[in-house]
Fold this sequence. Notes:
This protein is α/β, with parallel strands linked by helices. It contains eleven helices and ten strands. The chain has helices at about 30-35, 45-65, 85-100, 110-120, 160-170, 180-185, 210-225, 230-260, 280-290, 300-305, 310-320, and strands at about 1-5, 10-20, 20-30, 75-80, 105-110, 130-135, 140-145, 150-155, 270, 295. The longest helix is centred in the C-terminal third of the chain and has 33 residues, at about 230-260. Zinc ion binds near residues 110, 114 and 135.
Amino acid sequence: MKILAIETSCDETAVAITNKEEILANEIFSQIKLHKQYGGIVPEIATRSHINELPYLIENAIQKSSIKLKELDAIAVTGGPGLIGSIISGLTYAKTLSTILNKKFIAINHLEGHALITCLTNKSIQPPFLLLLISGGHSQIIIIHKQFKYELLGNTLDDAVGEVFDKVGRQLKLEYPGGPEIEKYAKLGNDTKYIFPKPLIYNKNCNFSFSGLKTAVIRTIKKIDLPIKKQDTYNICASFQKTVADILIKKLLIASDKFTEIYKDKINIVISGGVASNKYIRNKINKHFQHTKFNIDYPPTKLCTDNAVMIAYAAYKRLSEGYESTLKFAPRSRWNINEK
Ligand code: KG4
Ligand code: ZN
């Protein structure tokens, strides 16, 4: 089954072509340099850029895959959640392509893409497994009971973890996005120099709250005499990153207990989304779980952040089970993973 997939939910324009589980093309245009000067994503600029870049990415993907448009079986696209203008641009393109080419059309939940991609890159991971999804828009813990059956164990009550990395980065005058910058500077810092709060940590559920942590870090930054010394930046980055890792570990431990109550012998935990590319956080989580029964797995870095391969793969799984969308599908800025 040959699928062309489009992902434009946020600030990456991405196109992939796959044939069943084989990746034939994976094209990504990152808009980071367009948004950098504003310190965050400007939705209007994102939409315009998706519209500009999509034709070139599709052309490149077709060339690299050596697949002719008429050979495709389906067009897949992210239908949400995300920035509405960005989603509309990809969705409209995909609907038009499927109409002109007379191909099947399927709209995919972006979160399902992040959730399932590890099943493609590591064949030993199959449902049921536990998923920690940490990105710029989401911080969720989900049980994937079986194909397309999701249970949301926990969610953020306020900011997403990646969003907080970006906001702390902005306060420290680091480049956008803050996540990779904070990881880089944290390597030079002392991660116990500052003690930051860990909201909801003693709460026995799997929900997160990151806005209190964000406020505490920003307050600390504002108290430092200007100009902020490099070492202060490094120490704040390291201490903040450690606090995030501690929170994630604590909530994962609660979630893994809940998972074990249902699936005694199942051991796989998958961590996906942009923040999952952070090596410090990976190492800390791995270390914590190394003497437990749990096996922790991550998609390769390139497939952790937004990409269209994950949309193509989820589409392949769904189309194989007979799912299809109609052209009436409306873009969704919000779309829970367990919602139809
Ligand atoms: O999954 P993703 O590419 O897009 C969304 O669906 O949101 O995630 C982007 C987020 C941004 O907030 C970015 O700062 C964060 O992932 N991120 C990181 C790292 N790389 C990306 N956060 C911490 N450490 C990183 N190395
Ligand atoms: Zn994402």
